Amino acid sequence: MALTMRALTESQLQALRERVGPQKVSRNESELWVHARDEGGHGEHPPDCIVYAESRDDVVQVLKFCHHERIPVVPWGAGTSLEANPVALYGGVCLDLSRMNRVVEIRPEDFQVTVEPGVVHYDLNKQLSRYGLFFPPDPGAPATIGGIVANNAAGIQAVKYGSVKHYVLQLEVVLAHGEVLRLGSRAMRSSSGYDLVHLFVGSEGTLGVFTEITLKLVGIPPEVSAATASFPRLEKATQAVVEIVQAGLSPAALELMDPVTVRDINAFKGLELPEMPTLFLEFRGNGPEVAEDVRLAQEICEGNGCVSYQSVLGREERDRLWEARHHAYYASAAANPGKRAIVTDVAVPISKFPEMVEFSRQKLEEFGLGGPILGHAGDGNFHVGIFYGDEEERAKAHQVNEAIVLKALELGGTATGEHGVGVGKIAFMEREHGAGYRWMHQIKKLFDPHGILNPGKIFPPE
Ligand SMILES: Cc1cc2nc3c(=O)[nH]c(=O)nc-3n(C[C@H](O)[C@H](O)[C@H](O)COP(=O)(O)OP(=O)(O)OC[C@H]3O[C@@H](n4cnc5c(N)ncnc54)[C@H](O)[C@@H]3O)c2cc1C
Predict the structure, then answer these.
(1) What is the CATH number of domain 10-99?
(2) Are 288 and 273 in contact (CB under 8 A)?
(3) Which of 193, 355, 443, 450 is deepest in the core (most CB within 10 A)?
């Protein structure tokens, strides 16, 4: 039987209600539309219904039934993805995990926590702060741990602390046919067989649904010092990034914003930052170590012609700057009313970062398109928001996007450093992975033979 591409029948809906309880199944029009799109620009596709799972058993019931009936099931955390990762392209059930939001157990003595997938990372960190601990990956949006793990998200602090995959110790996963797997252990290292935990990290809801996640934690460092550095030219700022990383400094954040981004966030947040290529830096650690890193970073920036270096920002100013950085996406959207954007997410080896950024800037200029360039420079990962209005601009935006991704691959990089493949990066997967992509597809078929889990993501529709 092929995957159902028609609306769920009334009897299928009734069967779902009987399995999980009628109050957890919604066909409310406005809720369907809220679940029809993420924060990216890939359009809207409402599911046929939403099931608000409240327990592992609800997830098992939904998957068993949908596997039998060949109904698509698309897990949903908070819907903050940018590549349509949680969007039900073929209708079916949107499996909303946000009500499974219990912190199951904090084990401060082991620096570990076990959570349900719907916990929002900001809320988790609030609870962990009582123990002097935190979970570093911060995608800059109010995302759930389930969505963060499924996208292998990274964010601002990844340059020091790494992306999500470095933090996942154990996963409880419900497979497409309803079987529950418990993967991994609480040991800090293991060489015990194939690493299935990390097969599921970054699988974007296409291999199984997480119902419990055990994470490693980190102690909150005593000292935090933030700085901004403004440069006359973009290539000077990107060169400073390379030198900071190559000097072995370990910033907790090293973010690049081009003048367009700075202008947009000034307008959006009422700030008065110099509208020049700017780096945001943050150092965390013990007092003397932080002071030395800040001093060396300043030296490197000044050596690259930095015209203004503001260090030792007060806590309030630092928070205001980071808040502005977190709102950069919405600031640029506000500066381009009525337009949509393709957001690139390439990452390249750090030595290639200046060349990659310059190439992207030239492509925008060559095609006469506007948009911000910003990103997690310390990891060689950055975003270009390619804004477009009419059809002609849309076609150009796709050309620019393609040119940027192909250039990143040529430089030994990747199409997506943190946002995942979703639908937006499918076109580049074969190019990036070669025969490896075929093997990924075999793995998908092994775990989900009927293709019910998040169809049309990572792989083209069958
Ligand atoms: C303003 C803004 C800034 C952002 N900045 C960053 C950034 O700096 N770094 C970064 O990495 N990302 C960033 N993002 C993207 C986004 O926040 C992350 O990808 C985040 O991890 C998505 O989490 P979510 O809870 O919203 O998941 P969703 O968007 O709801 O889902 C994400 C994927 O996970 C799957 N999924 C959800 N829950 C489960 C589960 N329990 N089991 C299995 N699969 C599941 C979904 O099917 C989907 O494929 C940003 C987004 C916005 C809007």
Answers:
(1) 3.30.43.10
(2) no
(3) 450
Q: Tell me which of 3.90.550.10, 1.20.1440.20, 3.30.70.20, 3.30.465.10 is the CATH number of domain 103-219.
A: 3.30.465.10
237 CB-contact burial (10 Å; exposed 0-12 / middle 13-18 / buried 19+): buried
- Tokens representing 415? 């199409």
Three-class SS state of 299: helix
Q: Is the CB of 39 under 6 A from ligand 1?
A: yes
Q: What is the pLDDT of residues 331-349, one digit of tens each?
A: 999 999 999 999 999 999 9
pLDDT at position 462 is 75
User: Could you tell me if 51 and 24 are in contact, meaning their C-beta atoms sit under 8 angstroms apart?
Assistant: yes
214 lines ligand 1 (CB under 6 A): no
Ligand 1 proximity of 147 Cβ (cutoff 6 Å): yes
Mean pLDDT, to the nearest integer, of 90-106?
Answer: 98
d(CA 43, CA 87): 9
Residue 313 has pLDDT above 70, yes or no: no
Domain ranges within the chain, ordered by starting residue:
10-99, 103-219, 223-410
Tokens of residue 87, six digits: 């969007």
Ligand 1 within 6 A of 38 CB?
yes
Which CATH superfamily is 223-410 part of?
A: FAD-linked oxidase, cap domain/gating helix (3.40.462.40)
Of ligand 1's listed atoms, the one at least distance from the Cα of 156 is 8
Question: Which residues lie across from 224 on neighbouring strands?
Answer: 284
How does pLDDT run across 403-448, given as a tens digit for each residue? 999 999 999 999 999 999 999 999 999 999 999 999 999 999 999 9
Q: Which residues are registered as beta bridge partners of 381? A: 347, 376
Q: What is the C-alpha to C-alpha distance for residues 406 and 377, in angstroms, rounded to an integer?
A: 19
**Residue 1 pLDDT level (bands cut at 50, 70, 90):** very low
